[in-house]
Amino acid sequence: MQAKEVESKHGWIQLSDGYLNKTPIFQFILVCLMFPLWGAAASLNDILITQFKTVFMLNDAATAFVQSAFYGGYFLIAIPASIVIKKMSYKFAIMIGLIAYIVGCGLFFPASQVATYGMFLAAIFAIAIGLSFLETSAETYSSMLGPKKSANFRINFAGTLVPLGDILGIVLGKYLIFGTVGNLSEKMANMHGAARLAYGEKMLQLTLRPYKYILIVLVVMLIILALTPMPAAKATNTSSDGVEEEKPSLGETFRYLVKNARFRKAVAAQFVYVGMQTTVWSFTIRLALKMGDHLTDSAASTFMIYSYIAWFVGKVVANFLMGRFSITRVLAIYSVFGTIALILTMSIPNMTSVIMAIAASFFFGPQWPTIYSHALDTVTEKKYNETAGAFVVMAIVGGAIVPAIQGWVSDITGSMQFSFIVPMLCFLYVTIYWALEYRYDKKHPYTVVED
């Protein structure tokens, strides 16, 4: 049945399935600019892990609590965020996300004064609350801002901007937090008592610097968004006689999604993928410091810049390939090579292992947005879209769990390099997922939605 059209004075036509007849360019760009915002916060965590390990004298498992606080916040808030979207709008949810992000950045000011690990984790958790609202809304919203046939392209295009935020975050951390300190662990190794405490507090003050700049950007983005008219981009539920039906309850939506086997598999793949990506990036700097003789913290962080550049290039190449070949086939091949890269990371006993970890980031490129859009493609009843998107975002909790597992493996075995077996097994799982999806597409060619 032809989708019911709702005229708009703003130049786009809202269709009853939630999509638009055309993409409003300014509004789409504005939503796309939200994507680098969570990239910057995530990459700063990789800097903070290295800083906190030395200052607070943590083992590898304890440093992973940074990611646990960060991605745990995503997990807890995704469903409440979807409820806000359902009751209000995508725009309203994005604005709440920006406000919470601003509050979280502001908490770094008292955290640097209190100078306790727990206070910093609280600030990171507050940022994660904002990012959960941002990502739950912006991921699905970007895919809905235009015709249905180009939904996968839109979310992948928007996702291509995330590495730019990651690069910005790691550059801010490299120069504003690490600065000219050198190797912090070596510098503090012979410090004790009050001298160590005073120097540690001085180093924690440096964590404020990047968040000051991020705060300015967030406030500007919030003002622009508040003043910009945005499409609803939400499906309208109508009966056969044209009467609008009540929106599905959370319980009804949950039952629908649980019965959807392919959606469940996509959520599981997203959980494993995010865990793998987070743990590789969390420990790449540490791996470089282990493998490189007398490498400074700032120099080691440069490898993360290379990782994010590789991630960005991997996305661009994948977008080109996915426009010409089967999406599931491209992702299956990417995953095979990514698995091989991590096998080499854990087995080559020199700096080449760090290069292989960077290579793995190339193959991370298209994974998150493509799994996300692939999961939504399996939801044929679009009235469940908002909550379905929230469940996929909840899978980001893998970033809280898998790094803790790798940290535990590193502590138990005494080998940071061997602990990369954890993300390698994760990439192997993702490879199997895409191989099975490719086989499904071959058997059901008429159900495949390709751009």
From TrEMBL:
<protein>
    <submittedName>
        <fullName>Fucose permease</fullName>
    </submittedName>
</protein>
<feature type="transmembrane region" description="Helical">
    <location>
        <begin position="25"/>
        <end position="44"/>
    </location>
</feature>
<feature type="transmembrane region" description="Helical">
    <location>
        <begin position="92"/>
        <end position="109"/>
    </location>
</feature>
<dbReference type="Pfam" id="PF07690">
    <property type="entry name" value="MFS_1"/>
</dbReference>
<feature type="transmembrane region" description="Helical">
    <location>
        <begin position="266"/>
        <end position="285"/>
    </location>
</feature>
<keyword id="KW-0813">Transport</keyword>
<feature type="transmembrane region" description="Helical">
    <location>
        <begin position="211"/>
        <end position="230"/>
    </location>
</feature>
<dbReference type="InterPro" id="IPR020846">
    <property type="entry name" value="MFS_dom"/>
</dbReference>
<feature type="domain" description="Major facilitator superfamily (MFS) profile">
    <location>
        <begin position="27"/>
        <end position="443"/>
    </location>
</feature>
<dbReference type="InterPro" id="IPR011701">
    <property type="entry name" value="MFS"/>
</dbReference>
<feature type="transmembrane region" description="Helical">
    <location>
        <begin position="305"/>
        <end position="323"/>
    </location>
</feature>
<feature type="transmembrane region" description="Helical">
    <location>
        <begin position="354"/>
        <end position="376"/>
    </location>
</feature>
<dbReference type="InterPro" id="IPR036259">
    <property type="entry name" value="MFS_trans_sf"/>
</dbReference>
<feature type="transmembrane region" description="Helical">
    <location>
        <begin position="64"/>
        <end position="85"/>
    </location>
</feature>
<dbReference type="InterPro" id="IPR050375">
    <property type="entry name" value="MFS_TsgA-like"/>
</dbReference>
<feature type="transmembrane region" description="Helical">
    <location>
        <begin position="388"/>
        <end position="409"/>
    </location>
</feature>
<feature type="transmembrane region" description="Helical">
    <location>
        <begin position="330"/>
        <end position="348"/>
    </location>
</feature>
<feature type="transmembrane region" description="Helical">
    <location>
        <begin position="415"/>
        <end position="436"/>
    </location>
</feature>
<keyword id="KW-0812">Transmembrane</keyword>
<dbReference type="InterPro" id="IPR005275">
    <property type="entry name" value="Lfuc_symporter_FucP"/>
</dbReference>
<feature type="transmembrane region" description="Helical">
    <location>
        <begin position="115"/>
        <end position="134"/>
    </location>
</feature>
<dbReference type="GO" id="GO:0005886">
    <property type="term" value="C:plasma membrane"/>
</dbReference>
<dbReference type="GO" id="GO:0015535">
    <property type="term" value="F:fucose:proton symporter activity"/>
</dbReference>
<keyword id="KW-1003">Cell membrane</keyword>
<feature type="transmembrane region" description="Helical">
    <location>
        <begin position="155"/>
        <end position="178"/>
    </location>
</feature>
<keyword id="KW-0472">Membrane</keyword>
<keyword id="KW-1133">Transmembrane helix</keyword>
